[in-house]
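Handout, section 4.2: multi-component inputs.
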Amino acid sequence: MQAQTNFLFVLDNVYRVVHDTYMKNAFGSYVREKREALRQKDKSYSLRQVAERIGIEPSYLSKVERGFPAPLSEGKIRALSDELEENPDIMLALSGKVSSDVLDIIRKRPELFADLIRQMKEMPDNAVLRLVREVRDGDW
Amino acid sequence: MIELKNKKLVFTFPEIHPRAKLTISFKKTLRIPDDGNTYPLPPGLGTFPLVHVDDHEKTVPDEWLKHGGVMLPMHQSEAMWINFDSDFIEEHDTEYPFAVKIATGKINAVTGGEWSEGLERRPQNYLVAPKQPWLDGYHVSRDSIRQFVAMPLGDGYTAEGQITGREEFGGLQIQVYPMKREAFEKRWPKVDMAGISYSVDEAEIMYCRKSPDMGLAPGGLMRQKIYADEFDLSEWEREVSSRCFVHLANSGQWKTITGKLPPENPPTARDYSEHGLPWFEYYSDDKPLPGSRVLNGLKSVFETGKSKRQNPLPENESADPKRLLILQKRQNPNQVREWRE
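Output:
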């Protein structure tokens, strides 16, 4: 149930963020905006230095930011999330991916999770967050 | 209600008060030398992993499933402390108080009595958190405790074994009672928030033993007080409580049970001190409780080992804590009893 709750929480955030930003060339614009905001305070957030720190060519990061088709692996997106201090699940969703650990969770019980997500489609955030797993007390 | 979040047990009582929330975590730490000297507070060296026993129903003993709760891995002769934390509630200018009973192997760590339901005052069988910020061991005197040290069940080292003559439960048992809402709001009426700004600040598988169970035993002496309850017993909501059994899994079998490696053993107290790393002292004006005679009569792990002609505590050399950091209640919200590389 904990895994379900985490998954649903992430999915809910992802859904909102994807919709809010889709029309703005989501991922590239988002990365550029966040990186530039950090660069205002710290020059080490230049395109070149960030690219070097996550292990890609600056020209490639430039393409990503400008919305050219330049796919990044999950690992690189996670590294970029760390750099930009952003939630990696949201960054992955913006780039059209779902975290591999979340996919693994679904793959183990696809029917259960698909059904659960459909049922919860219209539930408000607070109702989704109310689904928590309690530590079970037994017979001592 | 108890949830497991980020390696912490989160006790909440929304039916009593929306902000009644106590977080309990289990900290890795140095094992202080069991040499007759009394040591200051050792540092926190990270938080023990904590998982639901139900998530490993195929690999944990049936008895653990019966008890329910959670489990964490400990190396033999490793030490731990228990940390209590509660959110600061701005509109009442305080944290929500809780009465917390802690037992090891169903022996109360404050009184030395066998586990019983309910809160008692003579002697006080609980501590008041988060006024009591942590508990490192058995309450043996007004000014000191004997550190919680993990030992296998069945060898006679644990407090449970020494007091009852049996070692059947092991682990830790925790029960939390919130203060009554009326009592809380009467003691700490809402404050006017206008113009005030606050900055918002954690079985079946066996190889060397027939069970992965560990229990806690009394280790070296440490300067620590357990504070007397300053509230009236009637102010506690004694009809409402949440309790949790925390199983201690032998670290050697943690991987077999969970598929994951346990954290490494901490450094020795001597090595830690010789590197000039900090120990801690905690100051509070609150009145301490007298120690438990029963717990004071227990043999420490070293003493038990000596009587058995065993050496259960390798690397028990005395340490010389040279660097002491002083912690004080609410002196600085960012103060931590932690050291990390």
